[in-house]
Specification:
heterodimer, A: alpha/beta, TIM Barrel, eight-stranded parallel β-sheet, 11 helices, 8 strands, 12% strand, globular, B: alpha/beta, 36% helix
């Protein structure tokens, strides 16, 4: 393995909401009453069943409660262990799955307030992502604007599988708000399950859903690029989280070929897809879908034709690697520094901003 | 792509100078809408003329994402006698088979009726297409081989069609499309795999189809380019389903061919499957080996549209990971994104790999060596 260096930015950690009741203090009277009266219990997504092996490394699984639900564990197992300067919290609570835009909005607001109070206030190394649901773009924008006043929020968080492809123009106000407020847009693995979790229908298995995340990221990149999001918002950074990245080069080879043949259809795409990815799209390091040998991995890095695309991540507490081997073998010192420090800091401008609350790191 | 094609003088074609190739993806078309009627019960003639042939999408005529060209085909491929591109054997011979020295051409009829909402009509059309392939194509040119087209949403009926054609040397594979009402590993499709295995035929899975599912797992996109690029992601999910459902375990002699969906993604998908399987194998105890092993032993890939990296050596890395013995050259004639056999491989490929790529892998897989 390659040794991590101190001072890195872990761009993908997952604090878990212990139970829906944990959000009750952050809901208004109406929604608190709805949750209790209607007997709602929890919002665990099929994307990450609590006891699935992928949802937690065995040695990171707590004796009781959900993996990732304890801040002291996260400190010991991730923040201290990998000596990071910051870690970006991406809550994966299934608030996007509900169908009512009112309910989704209430849960998103509660989740963001919960994150600020229960995690960001208690641990100065943590930064937050603003979770929004796409049932109402108007409400998503309002929530982004509300949370962005707290400069510890560095990103807007979306799921890779929702109702419509993410490049669709209806979603552009979200991207405009993010660009205006200096927030990256993170797109994380997971589905709202409003469409089948593969593009060929419903499979039988959890493993199938997880494998399919990589295909979903590919189709979202196509959508974001060809709809012209980055022609309109050239300063916007989008981060593919828990996406894998070894699929990227062959995907771009195909997209580039068809773009050359079909650019009459989307004439506003003013740069080659490969260039757009280099300037606007980033990928979290874990999971690494590649064989463990450094020779193959270095060929894959060469195929990516840029050392600025990857951002360090542990994906804590998900089970992506063993021991301290978060960095694969064979990385140069220069690449380690880029992945762990330079690239994340260039992607998240708010990491440089002094925090607006009393929690200066 | 939208270049006006000018009349050009007839040229002497250097047939003898070119090495023989296999073209594993040729799309024969019907010259007229009624061309299948001789093989179709009268009941269906009236049905087609009144109600049509509804697929799992809304358009009565034409595809939901308009193609880049009429019939998604080359503008220089219209036969002089009329009819759509790919509908004339003599013109296909003159424009493609003869000048490119195609020794083996595998026919993959599209728009056949495979995957229609009315499964009975689908079965009738597929059977007619199979008779038509023999009458119009394979019996007229021995270089051409047909695919058994089946009404895939009705497994037992599809299996019966395969058994009806088994042993007929005109057919070299069973043809499915990638996008169906369910992922292809689902049990409803297993009768097809069983019949194919019994007949000793590989199953070719061609990109496209409309099973009713959006072409992304996040709903319907806006553009044709998204559908075209998306076929590759659909194929990845279809192959993952085939592997994870245990199709290759249950049918140990069955080979499969991924047609017109790219191959560059194969190593990454296999690595991802293996990695996740290490974590979640208890959920799929019917798999006795890492997923990548089923893929590397049982799956072949047609080449068109060749992925197009800036650096050619990147493509060769990928081919090395897949194996030069797994690729089957294809042009996709007469479609607009046709790959020209004289241009897909640059200099520097060994003679053995070149022959395998262009011809020998196909002859071996299709039992024609």
């Amino acid at each position: 393995m390659t040794a991590p260096i101190a001072g890195g930015v872990d761009c993908d950690v997952h604090p878990a909401v212990p139970h829906l009741t944990s959000l009750l203090p952050y809901l208004n009277d109406y929604w608190r009453d709805q949750v209790t009266t209607r007997g709602m219990t929890d919002l665990i997504s099929q994307s990450y069943p609590t006891y699935s092996p992928i949802s937690s490394r065995p040695d990171w699984r707590p004796a009781q409660g959900k993996p990732g639900s304890n801040l002291d564990d996260m400190r010991a197992q991730a923040l201290d262990r990998f000596r990071v300067s910051h870690a970006i919290c991406n809550p994966l609570y299934g608030v996007q799955m509900v169908f009512s835009e009112d309910m989704a909005d209430a849960f998103c607001r509660a989740l963001n307030d919960w994150l600020a109070k229960e995690w960001l206030d208690r641990e100065p190394r943590l930064r937050g992502s603003i979770v929004v649901s796409l049932q109402s773009v108007e409400r998503a924008v309002a929530e982004i604007e509300r949370c962005a006043q707290d400069t510890r929020f560095v990103q807007v968080l979306l799921l890779v599988m929702g109702d419509m492809p993410l490049g669709r123009r209806a979603y552009w106000p979200i991207y405009a708000a993010a660009e205006r407020l200096g927030l990256a847009v993170g797109i994380h693995a997971g589905s709202a399950y409003h469409n089948p979790p593969t593009s060929v229908g419903w499979g039988s298995y959890h493993i199938e859903d997880y494998v399919a995340q990589a295909q979903a990221f590919q189709t979202q990149l196509t959508s974001l690029i060809v709809e012209g999001v980055f022609a309109r918002h050239p300063g916007l950074k989008m981060v593919m989280l828990e996406s894998g990245f070894t699929w990227l080069p062959p995907f771009l080879w195909r997209l580039h070929k068809f773009w050359r043949g079909l650019r009459m259809e989307t004439p506003w795409v003013d740069r080659a897809p490969l260039e757009i990815v280099r300037s606007n799209i980033r990928f979290s390091l874990q999971p690494i879908d590649a064989p463990p040998d450094p020779v193959t991995l270095n060929r894959l890095f060469d195929h990516m034709q840029s050392d600025e695309l990857l951002l360090f991540s542990t994906d804590y507490p998900h089970w992506q690697f063993e021991g301290d081997a978060v960095l694969p073998e064979g990385l140069s010192d220069d690449l380690v520094r880029k992945i762990m420090i330079d690239n994340p800091r260039a992607t998240y401008p708010r990491l440089k901003v002094p925090v607006a609350k009393e929690t200066m790191p | 792509m939208n270049i006006q094609v000018r009349e050009r003088p007839e040229q002497a074609l250097p047939v003898v100078a070119k090495t023989a190739i296999a073209d594993c993806d040729i799309h024969p078309a019907r010259a007229t809408p009624t061309e299948l009627y001789p093989w179709l019960a009268r009941r269906w003639h009236a049905h087609l003329e009144t109600i049509g042939a509804p697929a799992y999408h809304g358009m009565m005529g034409g595809p939901p994402y308009p193609k880049a060209q009429p019939n998604a085909s080359r503008r220089d491929a219209y036969p002089p006698e009329g009819g759509p591109q790919g509908s004339s054997l003599s013109f296909m011979q003159k424009q493609h088979l003869d000048p490119n020295n195609v020794a083996l051409g595998v026919l993959n009829p599209l728009g056949t009726g495979q995957g229609l909402r009315n499964h009975e009509l689908a079965a009738a059309l597929c059977s007619a297409i199979n008779d038509w392939q023999i009458a119009k194509w394979t019996s007229q040119d021995s270089r051409l081989k047909a695919s058994i087209v089946v009404a895939n949403e009705d497994g037992p009926t599809a299996a019966a069609e395969i058994r009806k054609r088994a042993g007929d040397k005109s057919f070299v594979q069973v043809l499915l499309l990638s996008r169906n009402t369910e992922p292809l590993g689902q049990r409803r499709y297993w009768p097809i795999y069983q019949a194919a295995e019994e007949a000793g035929l590989p199953v070719g899975i061609h990109a496209f189809g409309y099973g009713g599912n959006p072409v992304t797992a996040s709903g319907w996109p806006s553009y044709y380019i998204e559908e075209m690029v998306g076929h590759s992601q659909c194929q990845q999910s279809a192959l993952a389903s085939l592997v994870l459902e245990g199709v290759f375990e249950r049918f140990p002699k069955l080979d499969m061919i991924m047609i017109e969906a790219g191959f560059g993604w194969a190593p990454s998908l296999a690595w991802r499957l293996d990695k996740v399987w290490q974590r979640l194998r208890s959920e799929v105890p019917h798999l006795t080996r890492p997923p990548s092993e089923y893929i590397s032993e049982r799956v072949w890939w047609t080449t068109q549209p060749m992925e197009d990296p800036e650096k050619r050596e990147h493509l060769f890395d990928v081919i090395d990971w897949i194996g030069w013995d797994r690729l089957l050259f294809a042009t996709d004639y007469p479609h607009w994104d046709y790959d020209d056999p004289s241009r897909v491989l640059p200099a520097g490929v060994s003679a053995g790999n070149r022959e395998a790529f262009y011809l020998n892998n196909a002859l071996k897989l299709y039992g024609l060596a």
